Amino acid sequence: MGHDPDNFIAGLVEGLEPVRPMRQREGVGLTLLAMLVGIAGMVLGFGMRADLAALRPDAMFLLSSGLFLVLALASAWAALDMARPFVGGHREGWGWTALMAAVLPLAALVEWAADWMGGSPAIPDGDGWHCMAYGLGWGLVTALALVLWLRRGAPSRPQSAGMLAGVAAGSAGIFAVTLYCPHNDLLHIGFWHGLSVVLAGIAGRLIIPSLVRW
């Protein structure tokens, strides 16, 4: 075949340009900035809940908002990490955080079932859909940041990356909402706030893969 290997290799790489490596801290910074935009938009547009403004936050608020914040950070980190091809090992640490956050909707379900068996079933408040809608809306800012980062990389499992990005976005959005939402009852938080994260995760798995493929 008489081809010079050096010339062959030179022909393959001709015209290629170096690509700036992806640094995780840049993705983290972009995501945190998006989360702050959502928080600022929610607080400036709708105000802050009274007990938080008075620096005397309710215990249920601290528990629920803390879980959503940790879930947002953990799932966002996992989504950012999936932008880089990875061989061996697992990236499932976010799953433990998701299990902790699932305590809220599960506890709400148990409370509803207990009330139902007692003959007085509680019904989620009808105004709760506002929280869900605002959470999904402000979560889009975080989703945009994660999609832009994933498009720069090469996620080997785009469906999983999309789901993680959706969960992160939904959790970030609903965390912003908790700073305004005056409700402390478990049924409202577990149903409406939890539903926002679930819907965002489903939407992320269905929509984001088509946005990050080259």
Query: What is the chain-wise order of helices and strands?
Result: HHHHHHHHH
Q: How does the helix and strand content classify structurally? A: mainly alpha
**Proportion in β-strands:** under 5%
Number of domains: 1
- Strands, count: 0
DSSP summary: helix tally: 9
Oligomeric state of this protein: single chain
Cα distance spanning the termini: 35 Å
Describe this structure in words.
The protein has 214 residues and is mainly alpha-helical. It has one domain (22-212). Helices cover 73% and strands 0% of the residues. The chain has nine helices and no strands. Helix 4 packs antiparallel against helix 8 (158-178). The longest helix is centred in the C-terminal third of the chain and has 27 residues, at 186-212. The protein is elongated, with a radius of gyration of 21 Å.
Layout of secondary structure:
Layout: H1 5-13, H2 24-46, H3 50-53, H4 59-81, H5 93-101, H6 103-117, H7 128-152, H8 158-178, H9 186-212
Helix pairs in contact: 2-4, 2-7, 2-8, 4-5, 4-8, 6-9, 7-8, 7-9, 8-9
Quick recap:
This protein has 214 residues and is an all-alpha fold. It has 9 helices and no strands.
Looking at this protein, list some descriptive labels.
single chain, 214 residues, mainly alpha, 73% helix, elongated
